[in-house]
Each structure stands twice: as structure tokens, then as C-alpha cells.
Amino acid sequence: MDVRWQRLIDAAHEAMEHAYAPYSNYPVGAAALVSDGRIVSGCNVENAAYGVTLCAECGLISELVRGGGGMLEQFVCVDGRGEILMPCGRCRQLLAEHAAPDFAVRTVAGTTTMEGLLPDAFGAVDLRQRGNPDSKGARHE
């Protein structure tokens, strides 16, 4: 396994250890390599009002933006046993907003692209094409 993937898996596992999952008992951690070399991570944070639970990817994207932005190059998500997970549909959309053109996602079957993860993703370009000039999309400074 590529050393970069192992670093991301380790970072995702470390993030998972901080998860707040008292209702499902299903902790999740996620980690990604940013275009500037940083690794950002996040964990799931459950809530008694289940619909407002935050996925690990939400925390990861928040850390990315708080840390100055950038483009995600590689991504991995793990469960409490350290097994690789696929992000849910909502989280795939979050990742697409910040994915580099060559974004790679580690899956149980190997590695896939953003197109493989979320074919025909809807994004800022679609909003601009529909006449919303204020839609500049993600900040990638």
C-alpha cells in the first residue's frame, strides 16, 4: 500500500477515536490529503435529533475551510474497526465541491475517482449555467 494512503488511513482511524456516537455506537473517521500537503480529518458527531447528526466528512470539510481551503486530492473513511467505508450520498456531494480534478477515493475495492464516486455531480458550474452569477463555488485559495 502506498505510504500516503497508509498515512490517511491512520489519520482517519485517529479521528474516529474522537467520534461522538452514543446512539448508533458506530464511530466513523475520515481523512484527506489537501493540495498543499496538509492532512485534514473529521469524525461523526451524533445528536439525539438524528437528522442533525454530522458525518465525519462534514467535520473534514469544516477543517479544510477553516484551515484556508484548498483542493482535496485523496480521501479515505473508516469505521470503528478500521474498515474502509464509502461516504454517503450527502457526503459525496460535500467532497465533490472541494475535490481536485485528479481526486482519488480509497474504497474496499481499491481506488476510484470523483466521477466514479458521484457520476454527473451537480456543482457550482451548474448554478452559473442556470443564470446564478453569485454562485462562485468553493474557495480554493
User: Helical proportion?
Assistant: 25-40%
Average pLDDT: 91
Order of helices and strands: HEEHEHEEHH
Count every beta strand, where a strand is a DSSP E run of 2 or more residues. Answer: 5
The helix/strand class is alpha+beta
Q: What proportion of the residues form beta strands (DSSP E)?
A: 15-25%
- Low confidence ranges: none
How many H/I helices? Answer: 5
Give Rg in angstroms.
Answer: 15 Å
> How many domains, as an integer?
1
The CATH superfamily is identified as Cytidine Deaminase, domain 2
CATH class equals Alpha Beta
CATH third-tier fold name: Cytidine Deaminase, domain 2
Report how far the terminal alpha carbons are from each other.
31 Å
Major β-sheet annotation = 5 strands, mixed
- Based on the structure given, which CATH architecture is correct? 3-Layer(aba) Sandwich
Outline type? globular
Side by side, the strands of the main sheet go 2-1-3-4-5
Keywords: Hydrolase, Metal-binding, Zinc
EC number: 3.5.4.5
Binding site for Zn(2+): 55, 88, 91
Binding site for substrate: 44-50
